[in-house]
């Protein structure tokens, strides 16, 4: 065996075979990214068309043992380049199963910031179309979240799920991990016989006794959408090709919360054309899942923090469903144009919510998000990252996670809302419908989008629209449409009045007429204002409108009246903890804070709380103590972000 060492290589293997050896690749060759800023793959020379996975899931060692069988289209390449990170490669073979021949491979150096990972260069022949990579995952496989039994609802069975977006699929499968390469996949997965395996593919609805499952995804998808979950999972059908998977203990609550899913599907199809993926199921994961939802095709992964009992957060499911068109059907060509996935989806989500709950509620949801965008823009201006408030981003040598901000999502959505205002709803709808059809199962760049927009919408309607300013310039253009929300104006005035030292929530006088001694008599009853009198989004806006330096004594009074610290709604809890962290009140509600950070791993909630705690010395110390206690409960995505907030700049 010949061992080749290159620079600082955490994992470096060189396998032996009877092939004549080619000269070793240079460091420069091993670091090239010819087709995508975040992938080493030489897609223009050779690319995977179909991937077959053979996976054995070992909970005891928290390892996946796998074979990734790539069926490739080879245009005369002598090397096939794959992406990998945190994997151990045992061997690589060429040819069909049973007739395989081992071949040489080289693993390149880790990129400077350990974002992209390593290139895996496999020697192939001019006509090679089958490359089989034998590998195993490691503790550095960041896509994987192995949950001990205590982190699941059953408390008796473990759980595993993967999170591929943006560039983590390479940490559990060696593959060409660029969104521009679409592939079909199949998988044979072996799991402990008391657990069920599910993938972003056609799924079983119940466990079998041998723990072996076969999956097929026959529609070509980008690699970040390959997903796996394994656990003690039950299923319930909701009708209209929709259903819910969840840990058995959560299943009934999930079914109640998401019972409108079939109706959402009808609304979505009426808006932008037929659903293209067969079934649409939602899998509700354990609490450590770092995102609200992930649009894995045919099987959205959802966060249990959406279970509020009052359907107040179902817009997240509308969002993931919308991704079945925007993102999954028409995909951003590179992560620089994430807004084409997310902005379109937020707009689509708002339209679904409008059809389901009416314009007033949909506008309130949009306005709350718009407030978040304005805050983000202010922060970006303050920390000199304002250039990143363009929709199309420059991400060369940068973590694609940078794109996952309110810019892609909310500025992106307001791009479409403003466009709607300019051209009219009917025209925009017909444009989007044809856009989803035209680019179905393809990827799209900002330039391609612009060409299509000009030809199919603007030229036809004779409208001049400043799309270049929206897409390529920082900040929010002046023509950004304004959403009118009188209910939110009222709640804003409550926050202002509270900040001025007044109490906007005095009991409301209700006049009643009663009969007494044969006479009609007027009485006045004072009815206290209650938490349930306002929408979740109204409370969010109220809390966000309070002065950061509000005294602990005043926060205590609010908390006594509305029990914010004791609500089950994570959106409210997050905003409340962020506000409380800026005064000493946080130490009065420390048990609730600790319980929340221990249970919930959704980055959207966890990160702002740690960031708020880090703003003062005492809070930082509390934040660090809690983080050290609970960090193993988080997926790596959340753990890394929280760690940065608590440790990096200090
Ligand atoms: Zn999304």
Describe the fold and architecture.
There is one protein chain. The protein is an alpha+beta fold and 650 residues long. Among the domains are: 231 residues, tricorn interacting facor f3 domain (Immunoglobulin-like); 143 residues, Orthogonal Bundle (Neutral Protease, domain 2), CATH 1.10.390. The strands form 6 sheets. Strands 5-4-8-2-1-11-13 form a 7-stranded mixed β-sheet, with no helix packed on it. Strands 15-16-17-19-18 form a 5-stranded mixed β-sheet, with helices on one face. A 4-stranded antiparallel β-sheet has the order 9-10-14-12, with no helix packed on it. It binds zinc ion (ZN). The site of zinc ion (ZN) has 4 residues, from α5.
Structural class: alpha+beta
Ligand roster:
zinc ion
The backbone outline, from C-alpha atoms, is globular
- Percent helix among the residues? 25-40%
* CATH topological fold name of the domain at 1-231: Immunoglobulin-like
User: Can you tell me the CATH architecture of the domain at 1-231?
Assistant: Sandwich
Span between N and C termini?
A: 47 Å
Number of strands: 23
Percent strand equals: 15-25%
Rg, Å, rounded: 26 Å
Largest sheet entry: 7 strands, mixed
Give average pLDDT, whole number.
94
Uncertain stretches of 5 or more adjacent residues: 1-20
CATH superfamily of the domain at 1-231: tricorn interacting facor f3 domain
Q: For this entry, what is the oligomeric state of its chains?
A: single chain
Kindly report the spatial arrangement of strands forming the biggest sheet: 5-4-8-2-1-11-13
């Amino acid at each position: 065996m010949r061992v080749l060492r290159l620079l600082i290589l955490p994992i470096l293997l060189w396998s032996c075979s009877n092939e004549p050896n080619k000269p070793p690749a240079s460091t420069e060759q091993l670091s090239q990214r010819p087709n995508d800023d975040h992938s080493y793959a030489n897609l223009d020379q050779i690319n995977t068309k179909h991937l077959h996975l053979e996976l054995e899931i070992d909970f005891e060692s928290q390892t996946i043992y796998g074979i990734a069988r790539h069926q490739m289209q080879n245009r005369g390449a002598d090397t096939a380049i794959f992406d990998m990170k945190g994997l151990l490669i045992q061997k690589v073979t060429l040819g069909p199963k049973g007739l395989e021949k081992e071949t040489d491979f080289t693993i390149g150096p880790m990129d400077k910031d350990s974002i992209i990972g390593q290139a895996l260069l496999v020697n192939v022949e001019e006509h090679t179309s089958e490359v089989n990579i034998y590998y195993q995952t490691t503790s550095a496989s960041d896509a994987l979240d192995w949950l001990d039994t205590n982190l699941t609802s059953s408390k008796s069975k473990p759980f595993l799920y993967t999170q591929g977006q943006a560039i983590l699929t390479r940490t559990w499968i060696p593959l060409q991990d660029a969104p521009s390469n679409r592939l079909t996949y199949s998988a044979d997965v072996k799991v402990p016989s008391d657990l069920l395996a599910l993938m972003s593919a056609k799924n079983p609805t119940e466990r079998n006794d041998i723990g072996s499952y076969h999956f097929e995804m026959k529609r070509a998808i980008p690699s970040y959408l390959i997903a796996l979950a394994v656990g003690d999972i039950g299923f319930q059908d909701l009708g209209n090709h929709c259903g819910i998977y969840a840990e058995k203990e959560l299943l009934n609550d999930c079914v109640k919360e998401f019972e409108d899913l079939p109706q959402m599907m009808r609304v979505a199809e009426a808006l932008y054309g037929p659903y293209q993926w067969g079934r649409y199921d939602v899998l509700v994961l354990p609490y450590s899942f770092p995102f609200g939802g992930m649009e894995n095709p045919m099987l959205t992964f959802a966060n249990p923090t959406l279970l509020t009992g009052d359907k107040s957060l179902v817009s997240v499911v509308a969002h993931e469903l919308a991704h079945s068109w925007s993102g999954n059907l028409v995909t951003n060509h590179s992560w620089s144009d994430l807004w084409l996935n997310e902005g379109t989806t937020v707009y689509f989500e708002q339209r679904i919510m409008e059809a389901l709950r009416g314009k007033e509620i949909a506008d309130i949801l949009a306005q709350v998000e718009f407030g978040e965008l304005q805050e983000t823009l202010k922060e970006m201006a303050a920390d000199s990252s304002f250039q990143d408030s363009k929709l199309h981003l420059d991400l060369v040598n940068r973590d694609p996670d940078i794109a996952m901000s309110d810019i892609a999502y909310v500025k992106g959505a307001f791009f479409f809302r403003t466009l709607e205002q300019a051209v009219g709803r009917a025209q925009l709808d017909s444009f989007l419908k044809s856009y989803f059809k035209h680019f179905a199962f393809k990827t799209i760049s900002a330039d391609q989008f612009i060409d299509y927009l000009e030809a199919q919408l603007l030229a036809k309607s004779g409208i001049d629209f400043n799309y270049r300013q929206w897409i390529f310039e920082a900040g929010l253009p002046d023509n950004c449409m304004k959403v009118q929300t009188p209910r939110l104006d009222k709640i804003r005035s409550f926050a202002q009045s509270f900040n001025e030292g007044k109490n906007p929530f005095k009991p409301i006088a209700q006049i009643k007429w009663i009969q007494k001694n044969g006479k009609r008599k007027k009485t006045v009853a004072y009815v206290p204002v209650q938490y349930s009198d306002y929408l979740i989004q109204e409370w969010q806006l109220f809390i966000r409108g309070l002065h950061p330096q509000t005294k602990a004594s005043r926060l205590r009074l609010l908390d006594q009246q509305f029990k914010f610290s004791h609500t089950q709604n994570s959106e409210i809890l997050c905003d409340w903890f962020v506000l409380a962290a800026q005064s000493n009140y946080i130490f009065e509600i420390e048990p609730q804070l600790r319980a929340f950070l221990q249970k919930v791993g959704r980055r959207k909630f966890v990160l702002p709380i740690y960031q708020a705690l880090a703003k003062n010395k005492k809070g930082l110390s509390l934040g660090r103590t809690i983080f050290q206690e609970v960090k193993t409960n988080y997926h790596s995505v959340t753990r890394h972000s929280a760690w940065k907030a608590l440790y990096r700049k200090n």
